[in-house]
Amino acid sequence: MTSPTETAPRRAQLVGTGLVGGSIGLALRERGWHVTGFDRDPDRAVRAVEVGALDEIGTDDAAEIVFLAVPVSQVPEAAMKALSSKLSAVVTDVGSVKAPIVEAVDNPRFVGGHPMAGSEQEGVDGASGDLFDGAVWVLTPTEQTDTEALMLVRDVVSSLGAQVLALPPERHDALVAVVSHVPHLTAASLMVLAAEGAEESGALLRLAAGGFRDMTRIAAGHPGIWPDICTENRDAIVEALDRLVESLTAVRSVVASGDRDGLLRVLERARAARVNLPSRAVQAEALVEMRVPVPDRPGVIAEVTTLAGELAVNIYDLEIAHSAEGDRGVLVMVVDESTSEAFRGALFARGYRVAVTPLAS
Amino acid sequence: MTSPTETAPRRAQLVGTGLVGGSIGLALRERGWHVTGFDRDPDRAVRAVEVGALDEIGTDDAAEIVFLAVPVSQVPEAAMKALSSKLSAVVTDVGSVKAPIVEAVDNPRFVGGHPMAGSEQEGVDGASGDLFDGAVWVLTPTEQTDTEALMLVRDVVSSLGAQVLALPPERHDALVAVVSHVPHLTAASLMVLAAEGAEESGALLRLAAGGFRDMTRIAAGHPGIWPDICTENRDAIVEALDRLVESLTAVRSVVASGDRDGLLRVLERARAARVNLPSRAVQAEALVEMRVPVPDRPGVIAEVTTLAGELAVNIYDLEIAHSAEGDRGVLVMVVDESTSEAFRGALFARGYRVAVTPLAS
Question: Which helix (H) or strand (E) holds A240?
Answer without folding.
Answer: helix A234-256
